[in-house]
Each structure stands twice: as structure tokens, then as C-alpha cells.
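Hi R.,

As promised, here are both runs. First protein below:
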Amino acid sequence: MLLSLEHINKGFGNRDDSSYRPVLNDLSLQVEEGERIAILGPSGSGKTTLLNLVGGLDSPDEGSVQFRGEDITGYSSHEIDLFRNRQIGFVFQFHHLLPQCTLLENVLIPTLVQSDRISRAKSAERAEALMKRVGIWEFRNKLPGILSGGECQRAAVVRAMINAPSILLADEPTGALDSENVEVMADLLLELNQEDGLTLMVVTHSIELATRMGRTLEIRNGKLRQI
């Protein structure tokens, strides 16, 4: 078991007054190594909140998030930062590449914490291999502003993969792409899952992308159900 969420409650606002808005209600989820999961649900249902809890960007009001049997909700801020850097890859609807940095520099940002020359050299080799794999190596010295949305989103996926994470959390990764690039992105995510054993959790409104995942779940009234 890679990931286990047990009896998660999460809301926003002050729990002691009327400003509190519950989002996730006694939600539980188990994820096996190498699974690919699509998360559906209406806007505001808690899809992004769920990814933020898994990725250690937020913590539940109640319940536990366990990664390989260890409760990450008890981690210190330093421990949770290391966990995210080493175990989690994030991809969002918009690529969030730094406009002043080249594509290669953007890809290598998560490796900046590495201090030794050997680790930096290995990261550079991995960046080259991944960028060639997704067809953007020829653009490595270009700035994001002159490239297409699909090319920038592929760079965002490589950036998420540069530290060889155990799980990729993708929040509407095809939401800003045209239909052709939706298919390219779906192919890329499935290739990473099938060839590298990468676990995927993908929040999406794209039925095309959802149907290519192994399991499709929907959040309704703060709970998950399989569809």
C-alpha cells in the first residue's frame, strides 16, 4: 500500500462558528503502488483539497494521511518539505514555469537543494533523458514565453518527474490545452505509469482523460465513490 487516507475531515474557516465550511467528510482512500486514479467532481467539491492533503501542502482537521505506513500529518515543516521534494510530483492546470528561466533551468528547479557535484550531474543527465523522451530537448535553452502551451506543460511534467517521485499529483493537467495536446498529455501520463510504475492521481473534468485511468472516483458531499 502506497497511500492510505483514513477518516479525513477537512473544512475552511473557524470550526467554532458559522464561518466554517466543511469540504471533506469522513473520507477514506487507499492507493496501491502503480495505480492510476482519476478524481472527478463539481467545482468546490474538494478535489484540489484532496490532492493538497496527499501532497503535504495542507493537513486534515481530523484523520490521518499515511504514506507507506507512516503518518505524514505528524511531520515537522522540515520533514514535510523533504517528503514533498523526494516523493511527490505536482502538475497543475497552468504550467507555472518561471518566464525568466530557460526550459532546462525550470526543469532543474526542484534539484537546487542538492549541494554535491555528483547529484547535480545525475540530475542534469536525468533532465536531458526526460526532455528527449517527451520531445522538448531541442527547446531546452528557450524561454517559456515563445513556446506553445503543450510544450510548456510537457516541461512542467518533466519538472515534476526530475526527482523520481513515487506519485504524481496532477490537478487539471489538460485544462488549458487543446484537444490534440490533451491526447498527447494523456499518452505521456500513461507511459510514465506503465513504463516507470509511477502512481497517478489526476483531478480532471476531461472524460477522455478519466476513461484512460485505471480507477475513476467522484467526490460528492465530501465523500468518494467509485464510478
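And here is the second one, sequence first, then its C-alpha cells:
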Amino acid sequence: MGSTFSIENRDQLVEAVTWAAAEEQPLEVIGRGSKRALGRPVQAAHSLDLSKLTGITLYEPEELVLSARAGTSIAEIEAAVDEKNQMLAFEPADLSPLLGGTAGSGSVGGVLACNLSGPRRIKAGAARDHFLGVESASGRGEIFKSGGRVVKNVTGYDLCKLLCGSYGTLAVMTDVTLKVLPRPQKTYTVLLLGLDDATAMKAMSRALGSPHEVSAAAHLPAALSPGSAVSYVAEAGGAVTAIRVEGPGPSVEYRCAALRRELADLGQTEELHSRNSLTLWRELRDVQPLWQEDERAVWRLSVAPSAGPEVVAAIGQGAAYYDWGGGLVWLALSSEGDAGAQRIRDVLGQYGGYATLIRAPQKVRAAEAVFQPQAPAMAALTARVKDGFDPNRVLNPGRMYAGL
């Protein structure tokens, strides 16, 4: 029977990983456990529990920087920055409820390890763009640091970017440093009602190409809009296209009015203010429109925005909505068989793009490629990077790709 190493400090982590490397005993790296169902099932009898490695170690609001131990809950960090009217601008998605867990239970280390970013990504960038510094233990049990507390403090290789999105397969993060930004004074959302998917893509493209500094654009087809907690959306009686504008109050009001005038030829418009606007974008961020699809597999597709509706139509038999101006498609399909994996890969082979299986039964995640299959040259590079950080394959083996 496997052991669980409950880590409270750096020395315990080094000891556990050094033992695992010497004995060639793979370890499953667990922050707070909220994302264990994301990715391929890890092939490890033992686990590293980082849930006690917690606490905000530095927060300087004037310098827009925050440091915390990797097991610190993202909810604690968001509460701390909110008190200072600041935010994590990459808007980290909380996938815990989608994966069968409790909302707000994820860790900052887990968010960065999975590079989880929300609707504001199209304007503010992804999680990795706000990841300034890290202390980690490699698969050899060696502690290393990268980055610092300011954006310009980068010497040598920027390993933060490499670790962000590696799903714990290269190193175990102990401490992380993030850039924070001021929270917008006002958040409004322009709604266009009743648009079909193709027209919605046109509307979002026009809004994002305008001078009105749109911070997010998404489209909920008619089948999914009734599930929103925002009455304007739930009672719209059809599809809802949402365009978010943030900033100082007078500027937001002016830009929303301008957008409504410029998009009026495409359909009826409405406007959400403050609480309703925040609620809608939190729902879209956390994939709440697909929560009720609890018997289905959930895929995340990255495609050219103009191709999104055609991709969804070609795959067929699924419930889908669009974020990032149409470039991100959240898609729910039957979890039977391969959960639509072959069909999706075939369609993306024609249109281009990437697909990640976010939620599916364990047997499907073990049998199918959860992440986009890599070309031979890229697969060879991935293996060499793994060899450099974790030559004995002890950290989260198999989480992303078989054999790694």
C-alpha cells in the first residue's frame, strides 16, 4: 500500500523526493486535491500532499506583487488582494465544481501548474504572464529558484514559464510570486440577444477590434443561457452574446453606449451592471454552463475564432459555448466509448487547433490522449526536458503523456 508524505516545509519535501528518486518510487503531487481528476490518471503508489504548505509570505500592494506558498488556497489570495482593491488579472478559473469538488478549494500552485486562465486572458494574458518567481524541487530533490519580484528581474532561463502548464511533471513548486493589478472601478457587460453562432463571432470580432478596450467576449447558445443565475440571461429566451468593458465609471458608461450603437445592426442589445456582470463572467470562467451536463465528458478546444461554429457543427451532438472572442470552445459530449476523442481529433485535423479533455471517467482518461498529441519532434523535446528535471520519472508520471 502506498504512502502519503504530508509536506510542511522545504526540508521535508527534499527528503521525500530524494528518497523517491533513489528508490525509483513515483509520486503523485497533490496541492489541495481539487484537480486530481484533470489530466491522465497518475501512475504512482505514493503521494506528496502539499496542503499544509500554506500562507501568504509577502504582499506589497504598492509594488503590485504577492508571494505565497504553493498550497495556499486561491480563495485566500483573492480575498487578500480584494481588500486592497486589487485582483489576479488573469482571472483564474475554478474548475473544482466541474470536476466534482467544492468551489474555492484549489491552490495557487495548482492554478499555475495547470496554467488556468479565465475570460480576461485575451486582454491581460494567461497565468504564466503574471508568474514572476518560483522556488521548486526538481525530480532529483534539488531546490532551485527562478525569476524574482519584478517583471524585469529575469536572468538566465525563465523557468516560471516552463513550469506553468507542466501539471507537476517537472518540479514541485514550494513558493510562488505573482503580479497583481488594480481592480476595475466598474464592470459592465453589453448583451446581444438571439444571435446565431456565426453572427455572434462577427459581433465579438467587431467589438474586440474596436477602440473600446473590451476585456472579454463570450457567446452562450440558446440551449445553455437558461442555466445562468443572471435573470437577464436566463430569461432572454435565446442565445446571449456578452461583451465586457471595465475601468473608470464614466469611461465604461461611454464605451458601453458606443458599443451598443455600433452593434445594433446585429441584434437587440441590453446591458449588465456591477453584480450581475460579475456573476455572469464568474459563471463563464468556471464553466458553470456545463455543470448540469454531469454525465458528459467536457472538452476545451482552442481554435481560430472564425472557425469555432464550423468545428462545433462538424463534431455534432454536443452542448457548447464560446469564450475568448470565439477562440475557446467549451464542449460537452457523451462520455461513452472514447468520449468523442477520435471525432474531435479528426475535425481539428481539418480546421487546426488543440483539444484538451478536461472531464471524463478515469477509464477514458487512461485510454485516450487527454492533451493534444504531439508531433514527433515536439514529443522528443518534451522527453528531453523531462529528463533534465526528472530523469527517474518520479513526479506525476503519466499525468500529461504516457511514459513521461
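A quick note on the second one: The first strand starts at residue 4 and ends at 6. Let me know what you think.

Best,
J.
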